[in-house]
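Throughout our pipeline, every protein is held as a single compact record rather than as scattered files. The remainder of this section carries one protein's record, kept here as part of the documentation.

===
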Amino acid sequence: MKAYDTVHKKELEVTYESLVQLMRDNRQVDFVLHDKKTDADGYLTWDVEHWTMVNDKRFMRCYSLEGRQLRDFTSHNTDDLKNDFKPEEAKEILIG
């Protein structure tokens, strides 16, 4: 997969594991999605996911919709990442 590093201004070849490692190295990983997503309850709709690491075993996903940061976030442990961290579904991957 290709990702763009917005800090170093270059394109990188990444994998699931390398993206997780980047978060462990205090980098933010953003997924720009192909289409809007909505949660199962119909409460939250987003088109960009912002992933960061909280501590060794906890990760946080924040959301944006049409360029506006939403107040909602979700917390994930390392096992949750396997279900919810899906770089393959992103139209574009940005590393901050």
Observations:
- The first helix runs from residue 16 to 24.
- Helices lie at 16-24, 78-84.
